[in-house]
Amino acid sequence: MVARLIDEDPESAYGYSKVALRLASRVAAVREAAGFAAYANQKYSEALGEFRAARRMTGGVELWPVMADCERGLGRPEKALEMAGAPEVHKLDKADQVEMRLVAAGARRDMGQLDAAIVTLQSPELASNSVQPWTARLRYAYADALLAAGRESEAREWFAKAAESDKDGSTDASDRLAEMDGVEFVDALVEDEESDEGTRGETEAPVAAAEGDADADVDEEQVDVVREVVEAGVEDGDGHGDDKSDNNDNNDGDGDKS
């Protein structure tokens, strides 16, 4: 549940991790999961303690970069840099070494050392044309550092490279690139809804007026029809009355004959 929720609902993931700790605190995987849940909620001191516990249980070094990043989160970038130069780094696989480089560059930036951060990110992995799982994030961090240092043209180039290699959307390189180019994205759905509301407001009065005119026309027609019916009825009544008079006259005549 921690793994399932940590990206979308880190607070709930943290709650599950606390339950897991109560049930199995001596399991390394539980301590590691609890560490990542605390890390996702920016509880860096708690996360660091859990990562250290998991490392003692397993003897592995794969948590070294995230432990260093916890030091950054606690406001200790010097400690993070010290960890970046420790022997444990040489035991990391390529992906974790790149992660450690990202943490070290971030620590340099925390200390206001922008040029040093840029140099820290310059590596064979950055220069490589092959796309690896870490490529987009490495290029993005380099572009961001260049932009912070005021090297906008170079930053734009590397944001473009980051966007090109970011197949799963792990960064917002495309948005940053568009922002630098002055491109503004508009939510077409919202714009259409606002346009519809404006159009509806403008047409309500004319439509109501038209409906009123239509009602007036219908009333006049009804009046005309009723008038015609009444007049026709009166005429029919007079005609029938004349017929009756004629019949009476005939009857009178017949009576006289009789």
Automatic annotation (TrEMBL):
- Using the UniProt annotation, give all residue ranges assigned to the region (Disordered): 162-258
| Biased composition, class Basic and acidic residues, residue ranges | 162-179, 237-247
| Residues in coiled coil | none
**Bias regions of kind Acidic residues — which residues?**
181-196, 212-223, 249-258
Q: Which residues cross the membrane?
A: none
Signal sequence, start to end? none
- Name the domain of life: Bacteria
Protein's recorded name: Tetratricopeptide TPR_4
Native organism is Streptomyces avermitilis
Q: What is the lineage of its organism?
A: Bacteria, Bacillati, Actinomycetota, Actinomycetes, Kitasatosporales
